[in-house]
Write a structure and sequence with these properties.
With 441 residues, the chain is of the alpha/beta class. It folds into two domains: 12-18 and 93-332, ANL, N-terminal domain (Rossmann fold), CATH 3.40.50.12780; 337-435, GMP Synthetase, Chain A, domain 3. 30% of the residues lie in helices and 24% in strands. It contains eleven helices and 21 strands. A nine-stranded mixed sheet has the order 4-3-5-6-7-8-9-14-13, sandwiched between helices. A four-stranded antiparallel sheet has the order 10-11-12-15. The longest helix is centred in the N-terminal third of the chain and has 22 residues, at 19-40. The protein starts with 11 loop residues before the first helix and ends in a 6-residue tail after the last strand. It binds 5'-O-[hydroxy(phenylacetyl)phosphoryl]adenosine. 5'-O-[hydroxy(phenylacetyl)phosphoryl]adenosine (DLL) binds next to helix 6, strand 7 and strand 12.
């Protein structure tokens, strides 16, 4: 059941702080973080020395551009403890990123880091209408991945009752949602879609559930997907963003205005840069998101390149928060597909498919190289009610999808229409790309 648009704010002092005051606070915290990093992390000290920057050169937020970037490769190279700025004795938690092969990307957190991260998620849950009266089902995976524990801690902090399901076992998830009277759901948007569709297929109506909102993140999704989800369950589907290296979920979160995600600026400084030149870009211009942690003491990150693409927007939101907002992530600079020279983001294809009634939200992009030419195949699962034996209609649908993809991406794709439930479902982050171009040598 959708809730009234009332804006609850967890930490008014920090979330609604005057713009200049916050900048001052960020400058002070940045100065401390850089001094800590320079003193305790040899890799970053060497990098600052090589760039000719000393801690005393950093006095205000504006000075941040003098500092060298950090990259995911730094975490791999310094695995597992090389980037710790705190004594190992003070580290109380290790978390890691999901879905990678080989060594995971891990981050170490002090007790204070865990508390800060917990408050970030508490702010997100509050913004989604959550509080002590709520029952929050956490269907993010628990483990090294930050989703499960992150959402769990935040929901506990606001005093909600947590149902720690972790991911998977869809029938059991749905039974608990219904029987426990769950009011909020936390999981990936692809899993939320799968859950919502299964709920409807089981003949359960939204009125039989008490779900009022959900905090969905850990992977890119679209506005169209929000509409789809909200129409299935009659609730508020909100975006939540984060990454292990910085904290976990809650680095940024949407409020009920649904106009971008508020970044917790008392704990991080966000920049958008041109991924090629490294120059800062103004509000509204898409580029790579870069974060600097300014309160983390376990493993601080300075100008960490996320490779996520989005825009920033400063100003006061309709909810009263004054924190900068980031747009949805439209892709990553590194998993962006380049097909015949054209940049392709899975989210663009998803938006096309969601505009086609017969197509479901389940799809795969397969890229092959045939006679030195890139070939993109879009596999689309059709909805249950589509008659796949109607060859005329199948041909029309396939042409329609091809035309729309061409209009949006300016490239041609082969379209394969598949029966319902033929694409494997994910319980965590969805895998939507198979790139065969670099294999087979
Ligand atoms: O995915 C943390 C998280 C858990 C966020 C639960 C939200 C909810 P990692 O596994 O380290 O951490 O992956 C971080 O996931 O750089 C983005 O590319 C992507 N990502 C995270 N949230 C979003 C989002 C968690 N809301 C990487 N929209 C990030 C788009 C997202 N992409």
């Amino acid at each position: 059941m959708r809730q009234k648009k009332i804006h609850y704010i967890y930490n008014k002092e920090m979330e609604c702080m005057d713009f200049d005051e916050r900048k001052k606070l960020q400058g002070e915290r940045l100065r401390k973080t850089v001094a800590l990093e320079y003193a305790n992390v040899p890799m970053y000290r060497q990098r600052m020395d090589a760039a000719g920057v000393k801690p005393e050169d950093i006095q205000s937020v504006e000075d941040i551009v003098k500092l060298p970037f950090m990259e995911k490769t730094d975490l791999r190279d310094e695995f597992p403890y090389g980037l710790l700025a705190a004594d190992k004795h003070d580290i109380v938690r290790i978390q890691g990123s999901s879905g990678t092969t080989g060594k995971p990307i891990v981050s170490g957190y002090t007790k204070e880091d865990v508390d800060i991260w917990t408050e970030m998620v508490a702010r997100a849950i509050t913004a989604a209408g959550g509080g002590p009266d709520d029952i929050v089902q956490v269907a993010y995976g628990y483990g090294l991945f930050t989703g499960g524990l992150g959402a769990h801690q935040g929901a506990t902090k606001v005093g909600a009752m947590v149902v720690p399901m972790s991911s998977g076992n869809t029938q059991r998830q749905i039974m608990m949602l219904k029987e426990m009277g769950v009011t909020m759901l936390c999981c990936t948007p692809s899993y939320a879609t799968y859950l919502a569709e299964t709920i409807r297929e089981m003949g359960i109506q939204p009125e039989e559930l008490k779900i009022k909102s959900g905090c969905f993140g850990a992977e890119p999704w679209t506005e169209e997907m929000r509409q789809h989800l909200e129409s299935l369950l009659d609730f508020d589907a909100l975006d939540i963003y984060g990454l292990t290296e910085i904290a976990g979920p809650g680095v940024a979160f949407e409020c009920l205005e649904k106009q971008g995600m508020h970044i917790n600026e008392d704990h991080v400084i966000a920049e958008i840069i041109d991924p090629v030149t490294g120059e800062q870009l103004p509000d509204g211009t898409p580029g790579e998101l870069v974060f600097t942690t300014i309160t983390k003491t376990g493993m601080p990150m300075i100008r960490y390149r996320t490779h996520d693409i989005c825009t920033l927007q400063h100003g006061t939101c309709g909810c009263g928060r004054t924190t900068v907002k980031m747009s949805r992530i439209t892709g990553r600079t590194d998993d962006m597909l380049v097909i015949r020279g054209v940049n392709v983001f899975p989210s663009q294809i998803e938006a096309v498919l969601l505009g086609i009634e017969e197509a479901s939200v389940h799809y795969m992009l397969v890229v092959d190289r045939v006679n030195s030419q890139d070939k993109l195949t879009v596999q689309v699962e059709l909805n249950e009610n589509v008659d796949m034996n109607d060859t005329e209609n199948m041909a029309r649908l396939s042409d329609l999808i091809k035309t729309r993809i061409k209009q949006v991406l300016l490239i041609s794709a082969r379209v394969e229409l598949l029966p319902p439930k033929s694409i494997p479902r994910s319980e965590g982050k969805a895998k939507r790309i198979t790139d065969n171009r670099n294999t087979g040598f």
